[in-house]
What we know:
Elements: H1 3-21, H2 27-48, H3 51-65
Amino acid sequence: xxxHMVSGWVARRVRRWRAAxxxxxxxxxxxxxxxxxxxxxAVLYKIxxxxxxxxxxxxxxxxxxxVSF
Length: 69
C-alpha cells in the first residue's frame, strides 16, 4: 500500500466513525425526551378526565352505541 492509499483509508474510516458517533440520541437527550413525554401525558390525562370533556366523551360513546343500523 502506498502512503496515499493509507491516508485515504484512514480519512474514510474517521468520517465513518464521526457519522456513527453523531447518529441517534444520547442518554441525556433520551432523559429529556422521556420527561417531556411524561409531562405531556399528564396534561392530556388531566384534560381528558376533566368534567366537561368526560361528559362530552360519554355522550359521544352513548350516542354511538344507540345508533340503529
